[in-house]
Design brief:
Layout: H1 2-12, E1 15-20, E2 30-32, H2 35-51, E3 59-64, E4 98-101, E5 124-127, E6 130-133, E7 142-147, H3 150-153, H4 157-167, E8 172-174, H5 186-193, E9 195-202, H6 210-226, E10 229-234, H7 239-244, H8 248-259, H9 262-276, E11 281-282, H10 289-307, H11 320-331, E12 336-342, H12 349-360, E13 366-370, H13 373-380, H14 382-393, H15 408-414, E14 418-422, H16 428-435, E15 445-451, H17 454-457, E16 463-466, H18 472-484, H19 494-504, H20 508-518, H21 523-534, H22 543-557
Parallel strand pairs: 7-8, 7-9, 9-10, 10-11, 12-15, 12-16, 13-14, 14-15
Antiparallel strand pairs: 1-2, 1-3, 3-4, 5-6
Helix pairs in contact: 4-10, 5-6, 6-9, 11-12, 13-14, 18-19, 18-20, 19-21, 20-22, 21-22
């Protein structure tokens, strides 16, 4: 990271910079004028990352000119300067003030990413003590890539594994073509680069295939270069035979040495050892193949959930307290755990339920997130909603030619462990029709019900949680993220922003709607919008959403 900063600023030329610690005001910016100052910056960030790796951020302010702190000192001594791409570094476009976020790093001496958002500046990666320009991260097309020896497992284990992954909506790539020639195809190489996680199925004759070994080398390159995930799967083979190339793996490499260059064979050996040393799954530890595959799918889902970031980090601001509380209540074990979440519209009850569902539902035999019960029951009727609920819980099984008179489908639902969310329930009738028989789900089942009215939940649900609105600090941050794409307002908009936050009364969706509406608007437009919103009575706070998108727009443009 030190070398990266050095190269970036050395190439940019006549600039200086300061940094801001979380929670500090603008008048507390810290100047960096020497290598010791740079080391202090990185130590501060390293401490932030260790305490909170997911949220660690430090803002960097870059200014043109040497500035008062640089009158007699070079920004970076020669010992810190590094050569990039033969000494030529493409400098970023410097503006009067440029805000940057330092990327997370485990060790401040490790170079991970270039500290620049300019797409013209490629990511820098440290390689064997020197820096080099690297290609941009390939776009992901597949969740999982399965590497396997076709003759060993194509028509058996790998086929069953592929189907199990597909049933969980995991986009999986398997190469169904037989190789011809000496090298794997460019199409296959691209598929490897475009995959997030690799399942390497080591079987008895995996090492006898040079194409499998070439795949493995490429997979480990993607792990090192792009941070891809790799899970070794040992199918009826001793992991030590893979790790140390013993048994059939030793015999395979004797043949490879006769027909291939020694350096290439050594790469294959190193790749095998590296993958075999990773945490994996061994078929010999399970009762049967079904249980083995179920555990593989469970492990894959958990790793993918942990690996993929939220689609919109803004939507997660201010909900952590509610999320943790509901998770805690849900973890209490009873035969069937049923929890109701209630509160006014716009405070992200659905978001909380969705996050918990996505985090835990894959561990259950059946799962269903039934959205918009209020609206859909009016449009399609409760009978159709229950049919859809059972259909998803049983994954389409046992439903063909069902007349509704048989209890066979209900019996199947009761015998399995389910995770169910009924979103936006608005009447006792809806709850009774959809939940009454679900209370007899298999032991350990979980049911979450969201509603605006607590009275809808009281007769049926034993545990009820009231969603908390955002406090002033969280409200201000969320509003700023949507109005300015930063967690603080632009200079000159501070007072207006506080007024806007006050109009929203801590309602999350109102903060998002109003912030998004005021984004890039002039101060005149802000004043006009806020004057109208301040006239809105407190009981009608939900009108903020409608006014933000409908009424205000017409008025401001008039």
């Amino acid at each position: 990271m030190l070398a990266e900063l050095s190269a970036l600023f050395d190439a940019a030329g006549d600039i200086h910079f300061k940094y801001q610690l979380p929670g500090d005001d603008f008048d507390a910016l810290i100047s960096v004028s020497s290598d010791s100052g740079l080391n202090s910056l990185m130590l501060e960030y390293d401490n932030l990352y260790r305490n909170s790796p997911k949220t660690a951020r430090m803002r960097l302010f870059i200014f043109p000119g040497n500035g008062p702190d640089f009158a007699s000192t070079q920004p970076f001594p020669p010992k810190l300067k590094s050569k990039v791409n033969g000494g030529a570094v493409v400098p970023p476009q410097i503006t009067p003030v440029k805000f940057q976020d330092l990327p997370p790093v485990n060790n401040f001496n490790t170079l991970d990413r270039v500290l620049d958002s300019d797409p013209k500046v490629n990511r820098l990666v440290e390689d064997s003590g020197s820096s080099r320009l690297n290609n941009p991260l390939p776009a992901l097309q597949y969740d999982v890539f399965i590497s396997f020896r076709g003759e060993d497992t194509r028509a058996s284990f790998t086929s069953h594994l592929f189907k199990a992954l597909s049933r969980k909506q995991i986009v999986t790539y398997t190469d169904d073509l037989l190789y011809e020639g000496d090298s794997i195809t460019s199409l296959l190489l691209r598929a490897i680069e475009e995959s997030c996680l690799f399942l390497v199925v080591f079987s008895e004759n995996y090492a006898s295939s040079k194409w499998c070994l070439q795949e493995l080398v490429k997979i480990m390159e993607c792990k090192k270069e792009f941070g891809r995930l790799v899970i070794p799967v040992f199918y009826n083979v001793d992991p030590s035979h893979v790790r140390y190339q013993l048994g059939s793996y030793n015999e395979a490499f004797k043949k490879h040495l006769q027909n291939n260059k020694k350096a290439e064979v050594q790469k294959w050996r190193e790749a095998l050892t590296a993958v075999a040393n990773l945490e994996g799954l061994d078929s010999r530890s399970y009762r049967d193949e079904i249980e083995f595959i179920q555990n593989i799918v469970k492990d894959v889902l958990q790793k993918l959930i942990d690996h993929y970031p939220p689609n919109d980090s803004k939507s997660l601001v201010g909900i952590s307290e509610n999320l943790e509380k509901v998770e805690s209540l849900l973890s209490e074990y009873v035969e069937v755990r049923m929890i109701g979440i209630y509160g006014i519209g716009g405070i992200e009850k659905t978001t909380i339920a969705r996050l918990i569902f996505e985090k835990y539902s894959y561990t259950f035999e059946g799962s269903c997130f039934l959205e918009n019960v209020r609206e859909r029951s009016g449009n399609y009727g409760l009978a159709e909603l229950r049919r859809r609920l059972y259909l998803e819980l049983l994954q389409g099984k046992f439903w063909q030619n069902n007349t509704g008179k048989s209890t066979f489908v209900e019996d199947r639902v009761r015998k399995q462990r389910n995770f169910i969310v009924l979103d936006d329930v608005s009447s006792l009738e809806q709850l009774d029709y959809l939940v009454q028989k679900l209370q007899w789900c298999g032991a350990g089942s979980k049911i979450i019900i969201t509603a605006r009215d607590k009275n809808v939940l009281v007769p049926t649900v034993e545990t009820i949680y009231e969603m908390k609105i955002l406090d002033s600090h969280e409200s201000f941050k969320l509003f700023s993220l949507n109005a300015f794409n930063e967690d603080y307002p632009q200079i000159g908009y501070e007072e207006l922003s506080w007024k806007a936050v006050g109009c929203c009364k801590g309602i999350l969706l109102a903060l998002i709607a109003l912030g998004s509406f005021l984004h890039s608007k002039s101060k005149t437009e802000w004043h006009s919008a806020l004057q109208k919103l301040e006239k809105t009575s407190d009981p009608e706070i939900q009108n903020i959403l409608r006014l933000s998108y409908d009424g205000l727009d017409d008025e401001l443009l008039a």
